[in-house]
Amino acid sequence: MVQDLSRRSSAKKNEKEAEGFKKKLPNLLNAVKWLEEMERKESRKIRYWCQDETRLGLKTIERKRITAQGVKPIGKVQWEFVAYYLYGIIEPSSGDNFFLEFSHLDSDCFQVFLEQVSKHSPNCLNIIQLDQGKFHQSKNLKIPENILLLFQPPASPELNPIERFWQYIKDELSWNLYEELEELKEEVRTILTKITPKTIISLTNWDYLQKALTVV
Question: What positions does the domain Tc1-like transposase DDE occupy (predicted)?
Fold first, then answer.
């Protein structure tokens, strides 16, 4: 299981809390399954999703480059700070996924996203793991009946495998130069279309999730 997200651990991170989330997840899912069976004559299929947003823009994404020994790597870079946000969910066990484009981050956009996710998987109970961003917890949010939000500990992005999926997307975009934002959006759409469920599973189906999902 690879979880290198190429980012430093936050000083705010609580290591015990992060590890505790992994250990408690099977019991949480088992409790949700039990409640679902108690409240409904026929329990719905439970699906476990991982959710996040990422910023994509015209500023060049830089990555390491391989050159011959003694040759200094050179890459063209542009500094256009025009961007948009991609909201997404992935299901690590199946590779299913769903994405929407937005101009910014706020609870109104997140509300629209949740409503569309609800329609994407209408006949299931969709448990969505996500971070504790303020707009994820807005009092104005109306959570669809078939969605349950499961918040991971703060400052712990390594718990969410969609972070590695974002890294994959940005690696595909690295060193590319785009004149217009729509050109970048089209490229991202093409990448998302070509990514297979098998690839998503290989990137995101981490051991601790596999173990937890055995209960449901």
Answer: 48-185
Q: Please name which of 46, 51, 42 lies closest in space to residue 214, comparing C-alpha atoms.
A: 46
Write out the residue range of the structural domain in which residue 194 sits: 20-57+80-213
> How many domains, in total, are found in the chain?
1
7 in any annotated domain: no
Q: Are 128 and 172 in contact (CB under 8 A)?
A: no
Do residues 52 and 88 lie in contact, with contact meaning Cβ atoms separated by under 8 Å?
yes
Question: 190: number of CA atoms within 13 Å, CB side?
Answer: 8
N- to C-terminal Cα separation, the chain: 22
Helices 162-173 & 197-204, crossing angle to 10 degrees? 120
Q: Quick one: angle between helices 181-194 and 162-173, nearest 10?
A: 120
Q: Tell me the CATH number at 28.
A: 3.30.420.10
